[in-house]
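debug: dumping io for the single-chain case to check the tokenizer round-trip. Nothing else runs in this session.
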Amino acid sequence: MLAKLCKTLIVFAGSACVLALAGCPHPVNKEKCAKRLDLAKDALANGRLDEAAAEANKTLACNPNDEEAHNVGGLVHVIRATLTERSLVVDDCLTGVDAEALRSDQDEEYAAADKAFARATQLAPDYGEAWANRGATAMALGDVDAAVGHYEEALVHPERLVNPAGTRANLGWAQFQREDYVAAAKELLLSLQFQPGNCFATYRLGRVYFAREEWEKAAEQFQGVTDDPSCGLQESWLYLMKSRIEQGLTADATVARDACRTMAPKSCVAAQCRF
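debug: decoded output
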């Protein structure tokens, strides 16, 4: 009887060990995972989106808790959505069912991106860049209040934020969308203090002045963007034209209109460049 009991205990103990081992995660090979992540980042930086996504997934298979791999995966979705946006409003101004189909695909990409960025911030609450990326996806999905919160959280963690000045400009733009023009101007001016000449911050500050009907200040900002060939913001020509009209400067408005329509003739912005 004693021998039988001992045998039973040994078998039970062995089963318990097997169950324990089955429930334990495999040890992470940090060096192997890091190499996969580097491959994902390199592919992303060079526009090889499918490869970047594949390598990010391999990194997560190696280490499911790698917040940077989740962030890379999210960025792949964002870039795909951005390329769709270009097809929608820049290469051609699509309308009707064609536009609706592409918008649906785009929303799916942004939703997938937000899910990836959210996971990254869950794993690493101090990951400022992932918070900033969550702000961008929230803006794209039309949730301006969430975007403001995410951008503000990103700025709390500048040590893991690639471009704090750019993030502050994005926060200012989100505030602009909420029609909080004073808060928007504050953030955009701060952004330009740290990054003078930033095309997007300058254009967005111009939009704040334009919304407040400060035509001369608005025109100055838009002119600063259009005078910089590296900016390439067609919207700046559009709003420079509108500002000049409000100033009563018809000849200058005509110059801005013609430049706007030349930059990307089939775009939705070009369609608005008329008076």
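debug: round-trip ok. Residues 33-162 form a domain with the Serine Threonine Protein Phosphatase 5, Tetratricopeptide repeat fold (CATH 1.25.40.10).
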